[in-house]
Records
---
Amino acid sequence: MEGVLPVLMMSKTEKIYHSFGAAEDSISKAYPIRDIFQSFFEDYAESHSVSNEQQKAAHCISECKTGSLGYNLSYCESCGHIEIHASSCNNRNCPNCQAPQEQKWIMARNSELIEGCAYYHCIFTLPFELNDLIYENQKLLYNLMFSCVSDTLLTLCRDKKHMGATPGIIMVLAHMGAKA
């Protein structure tokens, strides 16, 4: 945005923010996942084993765009218009923060598609029983999974009985519950 300067707001920002007419109800309705975490995560964590990483992600999601993480101010030098926005958490597990990045990524991949070529979406899943082992060894086991998937696809596609060609492969890790 040309002519717009982002400025970090301090102190009294919340008072200013509400004076600009940002109703809490409309903010709450825009982030239902955050509200679920705020309402239920504490009770859930008391009765389930929750790692430090999960605790941190839940905290970030609960605080995302509430104002507790600070505010951002956008000021248009041309007309003087000011907009104040509660800061987001930018946690990789936060659906509110990741949705815009996901859409950007999808649009970038769409621009790379070759017209007239067939594309296939393959999903490789791991058994639920391995979740604890995978969680404790994420880097090693996810790298191993990607390597095995890549080797499998390349071997099958290069075989003349199947494709007889070398495919291009884009691999994305989708955690449980992610939409494929």
Note: The radius of gyration is 22 Å.
---
Amino acid sequence: MAQSTFRSTHWSVVLGASGTGEVARDALQILCTSYWYPLYAFARRRGHDVDMAQDMTQAFFTNLIETRDFQHADPARGRFRAFLITSFKSFLVNEWKRERTERRGGGRKLISIDTHDAESRFQFEAVESITPEQLYQRDWARALLRHALLRLEEEQQRAGRAEIFAHLRQFLTDSGSGAPYATIARELGITETATRVMVHRSRRRYGELLREEIALTLANRAEVEDEIQGLFEAFQSA
């Protein structure tokens, strides 16, 4: 499914349709594809090796998409983030052994998991001092930030501003070079004031896109600010 189609659906579609129908199935599959890594990292932090964590994550999402089991979804607090981790824990306790036996080393794969990329990311993370649950919350927040930044980058490319965005991107993340505004202005051939204005606008749009991404994982869009606060606390505790 194209990204534009994904933008017209979100977690409320899955809950509202009780997991039935192609629209709900497609919405769920894309949400799972977007947010599988936090569960993979959770399984790795629990002590499972690379292959086991991959198999567990793959089997869980395949089972979820095919059965559309929403018994852990609370319509009053319909947060996909909480639903996923609760369901995954239950799956590991009650379903994993049976699922692995039925799959016999193969089985259905309804989402793509790049194990090399996942393990590279996991090895880069500092996980020794945090719990699997804290790691899950932190990686979920990072996934949201990454998706919002990618959408902003795509917008800028469509507007013919890819080169400008490449210079401004560092002001939107915590991993940039921290080059001063004057340096960026000189490289772009514009004034420092104009550079500051563009950074301000980029940050504002980044925030808007982040809120849109968060809303896609909620049943109630009014909970966006509460979810932002919860994710911020996840970063603080981790």
Note: Residues 13 and 24 are 6 Å apart (CA to CA).
